[in-house]
Amino acid sequence: MAVSIELTKEYGYVVLVLVAYAFLNFWMSFQVAKARRKYKVFYPTMYAIESENKDAKLFNCIQQRGHQNSLEVMPLFFAMLLLGGLRHPAVTAVLGALCTVARFFYFTGYATGDPRNRMKIGVRLSSLAGVGLIGCTASFGISLLVRETA
Amino acid sequence: MAVSIELTKEYGYVVLVLVAYAFLNFWMSFQVAKARRKYKVFYPTMYAIESENKDAKLFNCIQQRGHQNSLEVMPLFFAMLLLGGLRHPAVTAVLGALCTVARFFYFTGYATGDPRNRMKIGVRLSSLAGVGLIGCTASFGISLLVRETA
Amino acid sequence: MAVSIELTKEYGYVVLVLVAYAFLNFWMSFQVAKARRKYKVFYPTMYAIESENKDAKLFNCIQQRGHQNSLEVMPLFFAMLLLGGLRHPAVTAVLGALCTVARFFYFTGYATGDPRNRMKIGVRLSSLAGVGLIGCTASFGISLLVRETA
Lengths: 150, 150, 150
Fold this sequence. Notes:
The structure is a homotrimer.
Chain A: E1 3-4, E2 6-7, H1 11-39, H2 56-84, H3 89-110, H4 121-146
Helix pairs in contact in A: 1-2, 1-3, 2-3, 2-4, 3-4
C-alpha cells in the first residue's frame, strides 16, 4: 500500500534547521577566509605545511578541520534530517538544532588550536544527536515496510 | 494541518538540473584524471607538493580546487534545490541551472592556474543564485509553519 | 498537473539502504581512527607527508582515500537514491545496495596499500550501479514533465 507524504507543520522546523546549518557553514567559511588572510595561506593550498608556515597547525587546526569536518558530515546530516523528519518531525528538528549548536562549539573548540578540545561539548552532543537521527531515519524506513495493506 | 507534497510539472526541471550538475561533476573528475596523468600526480596524493612537483600549483589549482570545491557545495546545493523546488519549482530550476553554468566557468577559470580568475563569472553568479536558493528553501519551511488550519 | 508523492513499501528499502551506507561510513571512519593511532598521523593532518612518515602512503592510501572518496560521492549517491526511488524504488534499492557493497570492497582494496587494487570489484560495480541510479533519477524527472494533464 502506497503512503502519501504529508508534511506536518513541524516539518517546517526541520527545513529551517537545515537553513540554519547552511548559515553556520557560511559563517565558518568566512572564518576560514579570514584565517587565510591572517596566516597567509592562499588558494589552492588546503592545508598549510608546517615546515613552510609557522602558523600552519593553527590554520589547519583552528579553521580547516572545523570547517571541512562539518562539510563531511553534511550529506548524512541532511539526509537523516529530511527523512527522519517525515516520521518524527518534532524530535528530528530538536536533534538537528542540537547538532547545529554542537557544530558551533566544535568549530570554536578547534579554533583554540588544540584538536583535543574538539572532543568536548561538540562531539559528545553531536554523537548523541546523530544516533537519534539515524534512529528516526531507520524508523521511517521500517514504517514504510511494515505498513499494513488496507 | 498536514500538507501533501505535490510535485508540479516544473519540479521535473529541478530534478533534471540536479542530473545536469551530476554530469558536470563527472566531467570535472575526468579533467582531474587527465591532469593526474599529465602532471604525474598519482593516488593517493590529493594535492601535489610544490617542492616535489614543478606543476604542483597548476594541478592543485587548475583541477583539484575546481573539482573539490564543487563537491563541497553539493550537499547544500542539492538540499536547497530539492526543498526550495517544493514551493518555487520554476525559480529554483532556473537558479539551479545558473549555478551549474557558473560552476562550469568557475572550473575553467581555475584551470588557467590563477586562483583569482575564479572570482569572476563563476563565483558572482553562484553567490547570487545561492542566495536565491536559500530564500526559496526558507520560504518553503516558513510556508509549512504558517499554513492555517482549515 | 501536480503529482502527489506516494511512497510504496519498497521505498522503505531505499531508506534502509541509505542507513546501511551511513553505518558503512561510520565503520570506515573507525578504521581511519585506528590507522591514525597505528601510523601516528594526528589531527589536523589529513594526509601524511611521505618525507616525514614512513607509513605515509599506507595511511593515505589504505584508509583516507577509501574513506574520503566515499564521502565525496555521498551527496550524489543519496540524491539519486532518494529521487530515483520515487519512481523505481525496487531497482533503486538494489542498485544502492550494490553500491554499498562495492564501496566496502573499494575500501578494503585500497587498504592493501596499492591504489590500483581499488580499480577492481569496487569501482566497476559502483560505476555500473551509478549509471543505473542516474537513469532512475532522470526517468523520475522526465516522468514529471511528460505527465499528461487530466
